[in-house]
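Quick one - inputs below.
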Amino acid sequence: MIALRIFAQTSLRPLSTGVKVQAAPFSTSTFQYASALKTAKRAKAMKIKQKNEMKQSQKAMRTDKVDPVLGKAENPFLVRLKAELAEPEVLSKGFETSDVQKLLFGAEQAVLVLNERQMGSNEVIANKVKLNEQKKRLVISRVLSMKNSNKVEQTKFATKLAREEFARFPGDTGSSEVQAAILTVRIHSLMDHVKSNPKDLDAIRDTRMLVQKRQKLLRYLKKEDAQKYFLAIEKLGLSDEAVNNEFNMDRRYMQDFSIWPGRVMVKESKRDLEERKLIRRTRKKAVRAALASKAV
Amino acid sequence: MARQNFVGYVISQGKMDKTIKVRVLQKYYDAKVHKDLFKRKDFLVHDEGNICKEGDLVRIEATRPLSSRKFFAVAEIKRNIGQQFAKYAEEAKQRVSEEEQLKTREFLERTQLKDNDQQLVFLGDLRTVASLKGKELTPEEQETVSNLKKKYMIQTWDDQQLFQMEFERLEEKVQDLLQDYKLTQTLQSIIASPDKSAEVLQRTGLSGEEIEKMRRNVRKNIIRKFLKKADDATLLQLGIQL
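Output:
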């Protein structure tokens, strides 16, 4: 009885769905009206659902997601940092090429002068000395070259460059941008290690902690000086999302950003796989249809 | 009746059309901890123009129900923090790209300018400088010198010693020490006789009264400075020999 009363009430209301309900030619029944109304409502709901699903799938397929660890690929600042590091005359342990060269020249001159004082000027001996000094120079350049140094030295040099680049004033070592830049250098060098050593769980944990520390620093900077924050994240290749979203260095992240290409980190359910297949198929169909319409 | 009014921060935007999520904080007294605490409540709010950005501080006002969960609309944007953030992000993009282009170009120029075997070239230059030093230069040699100056951005190297041996440095040091020793000796003798010291001090342009007022150490310092600076002729006039 209650149901009947409700149907009667609904039938009195004007239809707002825009779907025309055929008027019954004879023996009008409230049940018929009600079912038509129901289908119309369901159609509308289906339409909304479809729209939403499309939106969600597009969101999932988004390609502009930024890696919260490594940032955007081919970041010009980091590329330049690497190029600086690979320069042939860069020396390790904080030595400058010109200083070392001057010192070596002085050493050569000292030997030449001493020889001249002891034995008088002698072309043959001088040439011999020069040859000998040349050999020493080569050895020293090999010992000091950045190419032959260890990872610690390389990171130190990159850190120095990053610090100078982000400093608010010469000698600034502690501002949030500088700290974030230094952390970025460290994160990148650690990620190289993680990529080649997937079983080193400690390194993964360290990377996670560094990334979260950088997030914290940058969030603080956003609160303090938003302009500097946006400059810093742009330069480091990060995005506002990558800084503010929760980050756990989990399997999902490793799968999404293919840290170890080809390795399946998250096993997807059968249903998910089928759904993805369906999406792919519908896309293909749409493309084919578009091409066909163009051809016509 | 007055409409319900709240002030809150926009916490989500762009996910639903013409709708934002606003967080409203409300103070309440917690009887358990005897303290004022904040209660938060999130509202879905109508934003007709899709103007608000995440982070904005807005005032919201109750309206008729617009959907099952939406019965508020944005009345006013009090502080457009979120919109400013968007502006900053846009500015940063442009500035960083310009800066990076400039720096990359600089780096490339720097590396291309360098000779392939820079170490050897630098040494060769040092050798030429050493060989040319203290000589009378032919026009050709003068040109090489001027070229080298340009290359290393040096104005002059005539007064600089290119290379100093250890014994030369020590010799210089000994000379300096000897001179210092002689000067100190003379100073002691001058200070010992008040007439002499007054004579020297008058030479520096001080009056008799001033000299009398001075303390001994000040007097001594002034005389030392005078002895260091004065030339041999003036010293001879005073009968001093260093």
